[in-house]
Specification:
The chain has three helices and eleven strands; from the N terminus they run αβββαββαββββββ. The protein has 166 residues and is of the alpha+beta class. It has one domain: Immunoglobulin-like (Sandwich).
Protein backbone atom coordinates (compact mmCIF):
# COMPACT_ATOMS: atom_id res chain seq x y z
CA UNK A 1 0.00 0.00 0.00
CA UNK A 2 2.78 2.43 0.96
CA UNK A 3 4.70 1.50 -2.20
CA UNK A 4 1.65 2.15 -4.41
CA UNK A 5 1.06 5.51 -2.72
CA UNK A 6 4.74 6.44 -3.08
CA UNK A 7 4.65 5.58 -6.79
CA UNK A 8 1.47 7.63 -7.24
CA UNK A 9 3.04 10.63 -5.50
CA UNK A 10 6.21 10.26 -7.59
CA UNK A 11 4.15 10.12 -10.80
CA UNK A 12 2.20 13.20 -9.74
CA UNK A 13 5.40 15.09 -8.91
CA UNK A 14 6.97 14.18 -12.27
CA UNK A 15 3.82 15.23 -14.08
CA UNK A 16 3.87 18.63 -12.34
CA UNK A 17 7.56 19.11 -13.14
CA UNK A 18 7.06 18.26 -16.80
CA UNK A 19 4.07 20.57 -17.18
CA UNK A 20 6.04 23.39 -15.54
CA UNK A 21 9.05 22.76 -17.77
CA UNK A 22 6.95 22.93 -20.94
CA UNK A 23 4.92 26.00 -19.95
CA UNK A 24 5.79 29.06 -22.01
CA UNK A 25 5.61 32.67 -20.99
CA UNK A 26 2.81 34.41 -22.86
CA UNK A 27 3.39 37.70 -24.65
CA UNK A 28 0.06 39.36 -25.41
CA UNK A 29 -0.54 41.19 -28.67
CA UNK A 30 -3.71 43.29 -28.72
CA UNK A 31 -4.89 42.93 -32.30
CA UNK A 32 -6.50 46.35 -32.55
CA UNK A 33 -3.32 48.23 -31.63
CA UNK A 34 -0.56 48.79 -34.19
CA UNK A 35 2.92 47.94 -32.98
CA UNK A 36 5.88 45.61 -32.86
CA UNK A 37 6.43 42.68 -30.52
CA UNK A 38 9.53 40.55 -30.03
CA UNK A 39 9.12 36.92 -29.03
CA UNK A 40 12.12 35.32 -27.34
CA UNK A 41 12.79 31.58 -27.04
CA UNK A 42 10.47 30.11 -24.40
CA UNK A 43 7.77 32.69 -25.11
CA UNK A 44 4.56 32.36 -27.11
CA UNK A 45 2.67 35.18 -28.81
CA UNK A 46 -0.98 35.32 -27.74
CA UNK A 47 -3.33 37.42 -29.85
CA UNK A 48 -6.22 38.92 -27.96
CA UNK A 49 -8.94 41.53 -27.99
CA UNK A 50 -11.66 42.34 -25.54
CA UNK A 51 -14.74 44.44 -25.09
CA UNK A 52 -16.28 46.07 -22.03
CA UNK A 53 -19.75 47.55 -21.79
CA UNK A 54 -22.11 49.10 -19.29
CA UNK A 55 -23.89 45.78 -18.69
CA UNK A 56 -23.63 42.07 -19.46
CA UNK A 57 -26.26 42.07 -22.22
CA UNK A 58 -24.42 44.81 -24.13
CA UNK A 59 -21.23 42.71 -24.11
CA UNK A 60 -23.18 39.83 -25.67
CA UNK A 61 -24.67 42.26 -28.19
CA UNK A 62 -21.15 43.40 -29.12
CA UNK A 63 -19.87 39.84 -29.45
CA UNK A 64 -22.74 39.07 -31.85
CA UNK A 65 -22.15 42.24 -33.90
CA UNK A 66 -18.34 42.17 -33.96
CA UNK A 67 -16.44 41.07 -37.03
CA UNK A 68 -12.73 40.28 -36.79
CA UNK A 69 -10.36 38.86 -39.37
CA UNK A 70 -6.70 38.19 -38.60
CA UNK A 71 -4.06 37.68 -41.29
CA UNK A 72 -0.47 36.48 -40.85
CA UNK A 73 1.92 37.32 -43.69
CA UNK A 74 -0.95 37.73 -46.13
CA UNK A 75 -2.61 34.42 -45.24
CA UNK A 76 -5.96 34.37 -43.47
CA UNK A 77 -5.21 33.06 -39.97
CA UNK A 78 -8.58 33.55 -38.26
CA UNK A 79 -11.94 34.07 -39.93
CA UNK A 80 -14.72 36.05 -38.29
CA UNK A 81 -16.49 32.78 -37.39
CA UNK A 82 -13.32 31.39 -35.80
CA UNK A 83 -12.83 34.55 -33.75
CA UNK A 84 -16.48 34.42 -32.66
CA UNK A 85 -15.88 30.90 -31.33
CA UNK A 86 -12.85 32.13 -29.35
CA UNK A 87 -14.79 34.64 -27.22
CA UNK A 88 -14.57 33.76 -23.54
CA UNK A 89 -17.29 34.13 -20.96
CA UNK A 90 -18.70 37.50 -19.98
CA UNK A 91 -17.41 38.53 -16.55
CA UNK A 92 -17.97 41.43 -14.16
CA UNK A 93 -15.39 44.11 -14.87
CA UNK A 94 -13.92 47.03 -12.92
CA UNK A 95 -15.70 50.33 -13.38
CA UNK A 96 -14.55 52.47 -16.28
CA UNK A 97 -14.71 56.21 -16.80
CA UNK A 98 -17.73 56.03 -19.09
CA UNK A 99 -21.07 57.77 -18.65
CA UNK A 100 -23.45 54.83 -18.91
CA UNK A 101 -27.03 55.03 -20.07
CA UNK A 102 -28.58 53.22 -18.14
CA UNK A 103 -26.92 52.73 -14.75
CA UNK A 104 -23.57 50.91 -15.09
CA UNK A 105 -22.97 47.29 -14.22
CA UNK A 106 -19.68 46.85 -16.07
CA UNK A 107 -18.88 43.53 -17.73
CA UNK A 108 -16.32 42.43 -20.28
CA UNK A 109 -15.17 39.50 -22.39
CA UNK A 110 -12.10 38.72 -24.45
CA UNK A 111 -10.85 36.25 -26.99
CA UNK A 112 -7.34 34.78 -27.13
CA UNK A 113 -5.37 32.80 -29.70
CA UNK A 114 -1.85 31.43 -29.19
CA UNK A 115 0.61 31.50 -32.08
CA UNK A 116 2.36 28.34 -30.95
CA UNK A 117 5.70 27.24 -32.40
CA UNK A 118 6.33 30.40 -34.41
CA UNK A 119 9.66 29.83 -36.21
CA UNK A 120 12.36 32.51 -36.01
CA UNK A 121 11.68 35.39 -38.38
CA UNK A 122 9.68 38.55 -38.88
CA UNK A 123 5.92 38.40 -39.46
CA UNK A 124 3.22 40.87 -40.39
CA UNK A 125 0.00 40.49 -38.43
CA UNK A 126 -2.91 42.40 -39.94
CA UNK A 127 -6.34 42.57 -38.35
CA UNK A 128 -9.68 44.01 -39.36
CA UNK A 129 -12.30 44.91 -36.78
CA UNK A 130 -15.77 46.22 -37.52
CA UNK A 131 -19.40 45.49 -36.70
CA UNK A 132 -22.01 43.83 -38.88
CA UNK A 133 -24.89 45.96 -37.60
CA UNK A 134 -25.39 48.96 -35.26
CA UNK A 135 -24.54 48.26 -31.64
CA UNK A 136 -23.60 50.28 -28.56
CA UNK A 137 -21.82 49.66 -25.27
CA UNK A 138 -24.14 51.88 -23.22
CA UNK A 139 -21.64 54.76 -23.17
CA UNK A 140 -22.63 58.36 -23.83
CA UNK A 141 -19.34 59.77 -25.16
CA UNK A 142 -20.75 62.95 -26.72
CA UNK A 143 -22.88 64.02 -23.74
CA UNK A 144 -26.26 64.07 -25.51
CA UNK A 145 -27.89 61.73 -22.98
CA UNK A 146 -28.10 58.75 -25.38
CA UNK A 147 -25.76 55.79 -25.90
CA UNK A 148 -23.48 56.33 -28.90
CA UNK A 149 -23.81 53.79 -31.71
CA UNK A 150 -21.06 51.88 -33.46
CA UNK A 151 -22.10 51.15 -37.05
CA UNK A 152 -20.40 49.44 -39.99
CA UNK A 153 -19.96 52.92 -41.49
CA UNK A 154 -18.46 54.56 -38.39
CA UNK A 155 -16.53 51.71 -36.77
CA UNK A 156 -13.85 50.10 -38.92
CA UNK A 157 -10.28 49.48 -37.82
CA UNK A 158 -7.42 47.91 -39.70
CA UNK A 159 -4.20 47.43 -37.75
CA UNK A 160 -0.75 46.07 -38.48
CA UNK A 161 1.59 44.48 -35.97
CA UNK A 162 5.11 43.27 -36.64
CA UNK A 163 6.10 40.13 -34.75
CA UNK A 164 9.80 39.36 -34.48
CA UNK A 165 10.43 35.80 -33.35
CA UNK A 166 14.01 35.11 -32.20
Amino acid sequence: MKKAMSLTLLALLLSMMLSTATAQEEVEITVWNDGQTTIEPGQVAVLHAGWAACNKGLVYAWMNASYFEVWLDGELLLTADQVYDLWGSVQPSPAAEVVCIPKPNFHSAEWRYALADLPAGEYELRSISTVTHPVHDGGDYDGDGRPDMFTPETYYMETVNTIVSN
